[in-house]
Amino acid sequence: MFPEYRDLITQLKSQDAHFTRLFDKHNELDQKIRNMEAHIEPGSPVEIEVLKKEKLVLKDQLYTVLKKAEATK
């Protein structure tokens, strides 16, 4: 996710607790979705879709934080 911001992500994860929470939640949802799609974990198509939408909201929030941090460099 956001390979062009790899260094900034590393920096923010060590300095910004809010960013870290968003980042970790995004990764947790991503893994949960993968497990559901692989039938490792139970989940209906509707549940998967809801999680994907939640993950997208988190991704948008992460991007907003990244753009703001980039602008203040």
How would you characterize this protein structure?
It is built from three helices and no strands. It has helices at residues 6-15, 17-37, 45-71. The mean pLDDT is 96. The longest helix has 27 residues, at 45-71. Helix 1 crosses helix 2 (17-37) and helix 2 runs antiparallel to helix 3 (45-71). The protein has 73 residues and is an all-alpha fold.
**What is the β-strand count?**
0
Q: Percent range for helical residues?
A: over 70%
Our estimate of the beta-strand percent is under 5%
- Number of helical elements: 3
Q: Distance between the terminal alpha carbons, to the nearest Å? A: 21 Å
Question: Strand count, sense and closure of the main sheet?
Answer: none
- For this structure, the quaternary state is single chain
- Give average pLDDT, whole number: 96
The low-pLDDT segments are none
Shape: elongated
The total number of structural domains is 1
Radius of gyration: 14 Å
Structural class by SSE content: mainly alpha
Q: Give the SSE order as H and E letters.
A: HHH
Short key terms for the protein model shown above:
73 residues
Helix-strand layout with pairing:
Blueprint: H1 6-15, H2 17-37, H3 45-71
